[in-house]
Amino acid sequence: MPNDWATFGADLHLELRGTRLRAGLMDALREAVRSGRLEAGTRLPSSRSLAADLGTARNTVADAYAELVAEGWLTARQGSGTRVARRAEPRDRPRHRAPTPPATATPVHNLKAGTPDLAAFPRADWLKAYRRALTTAPDEAFGYGDPRGRPELRAALAEYLARARGVHARPERIVVCAGFAHGLTLLGQVLRDRGVRAAAVEPYGLGLHADVLARAGLETPALPFDERGTRVEELPSLAGCGAVLMTAAHQFPLGGALPPDRRAAVVDWARASGGLVLEDDYDGEFRYDRQPVGALQGLDPERVVYLGTASKSLAPGLRLAWMVLPTGLADEMTAVKGTVERASSAPDQLAFAEFLRSGAYDRHVRAMRLRYRRRRDQLVAAVAAHAPATRVGGIAAGLHAVLTLPPGTERPTLRAAARHGLAVQGVSHYRRPTAPPSPDALVIGYATPSDSAWPGALEALCGVLP
User: What is the number of other CB atoms lying within 10 angstroms of the CB of residue 453?
Assistant: First the structure.
């Protein structure tokens, strides 16, 4: 329905003075249309009404309306009144618009790895924890605070990590940060300040993490790998390497845990060289049919920096992560974080501390572990039934699986997936430029869809597998 001046309360606030009333009225109306104050289709008051409002002759308003109709600003029809013309454009100042970018099709199903089931976020329990935390929070909690993070959260994390992941942590050695990438950014700066020239990375992993280290001024050589995982014995041959970033408990994205002899070897390298192991324990809580693999940090807390996050266990939108640091590094990190960013959100930290202390976090992780295991089992069964030539691996833990495809089929399968509205990535997406190619494979984030979307996503996946 067209807008009506009276109905929608359009008010031009016209202030017309002097003898050139008609010209002033026309200028005011043109500017109102040009600025968008009067939208196309808006009905203007009758010439009689507007003349009465302005205290001028009706003919003055009628003549102004008529001239603006002739110019294309207004339209006038018998019985319909005078309205702002559609697509009216100023003739002396053409309007240039930026070209509209081509529309990008939104995937129907999302099986990209790296995100949990966001629909499963424990809203009710989180709200209870938030209320309790805010009710008991001291006034100083809403100030700038300690760059390391709220003491309540650091104490709760120290207890939880020791119990659940075998991490040796004291609250004063924990620094809370706004996500894993934020913590890695701070670490990169500290390493560079220490004179470290290079930080080795695994041959397959998130390019974002290597980019973060590179932006800190560090070289990021990729280690080689074999059927047992990353070959850490190559570390001594990397000149200037003072750190290595690893996903030891569940390698991302290839899956599998670093074997015990290589876990010991990487710690021995750190001890002998004075280097640091940066342990990304991104999904350490989720294991299914194997014994828990403890954190690498437990082998030597003075040579391993432990990095954990709530992004996989709860939701990435919380922006909560933490670092457990060696004794000397804790003070350096606190100084850097205090310069770059004083603290993460204090209310969220307090809520998470309460969530941990109350046992709600343990209950949530147990429930999600069962849910994700069911999905993993359904994925394995569906692939075996529909694509027996495809092997499913990396499934003993974590939130993703690797589907090894027949040779030469990764790219065609990805193109078929895109045509069917399925968002998924091949293993080549995660390969470092210097790493040798692995067999063709898909990396399937089976935790990403909601419960209601999972059956459709699984069906779509099976439909495109070779």
Answer: 16
